[in-house]
Structures are given as structure tokens and as C-alpha cells.
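Per-residue structure
===
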Amino acid sequence: MSDDTIRLAAVGRIVRRRGRLLVLLALVGALFGYGAGLLFPPRYTTSASVLLPGAWQERELLTQAEIATSSVVVDRAADALGWSGVGGDELRDRVSAGATDGNIIRVSGTADTPERAQRLADQMVRQFVAFNARIGADDGPEPAARPEELRQLVVRTHRRITELADNADPGRGVESVQTRTELAKLRTALQDAVKKLEQTDSAADRSNMVVMGPAARPTGETPPTRAQFIVGGALLFLVLAIVGHLAAARTGGRPRSATEIAEALGSTPLGTVGVPVDRASGRPGGGTPRARARARRLLGLDVRWDTPVLRTSGDEAGMRIRYRRVCGRLRDRLPTTRRLLVVVPEDDGIARRAAERLVAESESDPRTASAASPVLRVVAVGATQPVVPDRDGDESGALVVLSAGDRTAGELAGIAEACADAGRDLVGVVLAEPVRTRPTRSAGRPPAAATPVVAVEDNALEGAR
């Protein structure tokens, strides 16, 4: 792939050409998620609500929520439940509380079974209400008597004001002024008493918390469930596989065009030839061990996903013209008859088939009798550590045939260095591409006598079978 922005078309091509591999990796991810789910037991969560009557500020509600999950309330709930091996420290991680609209404190509890979760939430609410009631009782009986005293004070004050108003001198003397001043003070005291009475009534109402029914028994597990672990593992492996394909394609640095490949080899491109492949699958045959080829074909690894869609060639006659044009360019570069070594990577089945047909077309070309034509001999070399045979007599040049996008720049440089170490000059590069044939007219086949002669070293043949 180039450095252009990755489009959805690239992801779609990965899904189409690596579908079986992606399905296999998704199954592996599902098994991984299932194993991870076994490490986390199922959990169930439920909640119970407590209504706080009266007027409450937001800060006060948050304080009550903190009290509901305080260590005192949790420890008392743990003692009341009496679960073996479960103390207040463990329960503190399983409970939570929050203030909602309408002066409601919602207390939640989480346990390994629905029954335990229900009991935990109910017990937490019960201990929370009891703790608040005990805080109110600790103030003693005096606060409970204050509302009645204030009411009596209000009644006496009203009576006193009435008496003074009746006995006051209606004149404007000093005594009348003092009387009116006293009445004003009494009215102020009366207003303060009324305010204190209202505050006391509100505080009394606050102490009467209401539990809004028992907690509901949970019917489903708390996320993440085991099914979510399985689905998450499958999606994780699927995404990692797609990202890995894209990253490998962007960092692989594989030349694709004939010009880029020729520059990496330090030679000249002579042309591009087509190799017919199966129309349904687009896979050329041969070139790899049978068991390995079967596994690669099963997983869809025998065809690169980042290669362009196979184009349809004209017909057999058109493909033959391409091969003969390459042979003609080769004769133009070699005016005298010379023996050339056709170098192909041993794991490149398309390049091998193109090289064999190039040899056949060179021998069957009718212009061979009137023009000096080089004699071609095919040899397969390793991709990682290529070894090219040394010069033998007048066999000095080398022609490289390979597929586009299969070799990195380093591997191409290694092939060029192997040819240089063997004393062979690179006369050109031929690019082989898989195509789909469209038979429109009968095309003459090469004569039977023009069977390509492939001379490959023993170790190269063993690696190519």
C-alpha cells in the first residue's frame, strides 16, 4: 500500500480476501474471551431507595449519600448479614450510593447471586435509616420539647402585646413612647420565635426517613457478562487482525510497479506479461509443498490481499504477443547470441510460470532462425538468501522475472547482489501479473517440441516443491 489515506475499500478487500482467516481469528478471540470470563464470576446488582422529607440542599444530599456508604453503616450491615468470610472491607467495594431528583438516596449492592444482592441492598438501607435515627436520638429529650416551649412563648407574647396595647397611654408622653418601644421589641422576639419553630419542625421532619419499598431481585448479570466477554474477545481479535494487515502493508515497503522494481534491482524493465489463473479463485497452481499450499489455500493466504483486482486479459493470442515483444526487446539488448540465466524466486509460482512460458516463446518464435536469439535457462533462487550459479562459458547475463508486490526492496537488492557475486550482469526485469483469460478466438499453441527446459539447482528444487 502507498502512504495515502486508508479508505474503506482497503478494509473491504481484507474482509473479502482474508475472510476465512478473519473468521478463524474471531473464533480464537471468542475462546480467549470465554476464558477471561471464567476468571470473573457473574455479578448481580440491585438498589433500594430512601426518601428524605423536607427541604434539602444539594450539598446536604451528597453528605447523606456519603453517610449511606460510610464504614459505620457498612460494618453494621456486614454484622447483620453474617456472611462467612465477608467483612466490612469487602462489602465496601460492593456498595454505592447516590442522590437523585426528589430528595431520594439510592443505595446499590452487588453480589454473586440475585438473592444476596437483594439482601445486601435492603440491609444497607435499613442500617442507613437506623444510623440517622440514632443520630437524632443522641440529642436527648430536650430538642423534642423545644417546639412546645416555643409555641407557649408565642402565645404568651401575643397576650402580653395585647395587654400592653390596651393599657398604653394614647398620648405622646415619655411613657407612651417607652410602651411602644417595648411592644416593638416583643414583636421582634415573636418573629424570631416563629422562625425557630419552623426550623425545628423542619428538622423534626427530616429525621423521619422513608424506605421506598424493598430492593427488586435482579434478573440479569451486571456487565460485563460472559457473553459480552466472548463477543468482545472476537471483536478485539478481528480488529487487531485488520489493523495488523494495514500496518504490515504500510510498513512493508514492497515495490509494485515495474519502474520501482527495476530501480531496486538496478536494471531496466523489459515489460509486463500475464499469467492465466483460475477465474473463480484467482490462484495459480504449484510452487509450494502440498500440505502447506492446502493450508494457505484454506485460509486464503495464497493470494495477497493488497494486490489490485485481477484484470481480464484479451485472449491467448494477446498474451502470446506480450511474451514475444519481451523476447524482441531482449534480442535488441543482446545483438549477439548469448546464453542467459532467467532468475525467479523459488516461492513465486506466477513468476515461475511466466519464466517457463518466456523460454517456450523464445524457442518457438519464427524470427529465431533469422535473428540471433539468446538461449534462456530458468533457475530458482531463495528469497532471503539467494544463490545464483557462477558463469559457465558464454552464459554471463541474467534476466529477473518476478511478481509485483511479493518482494521487499531489501530482497530485490539481495537478488541483484547474488547476480553480481556470480559475475552475471542484469540485462533486464520482466514483471509477471496474474490475469483472467477470456477466450474469444482460437489461438495457436506452441509446438510440442518447444517445451521449456528448466534447469534448477537441487536445493532450489527441493524448496520449490
In short: The radius of gyration is 46 Å. Confidence is low (pLDDT under 50) at residues 1-5, 279-287, 440-465.
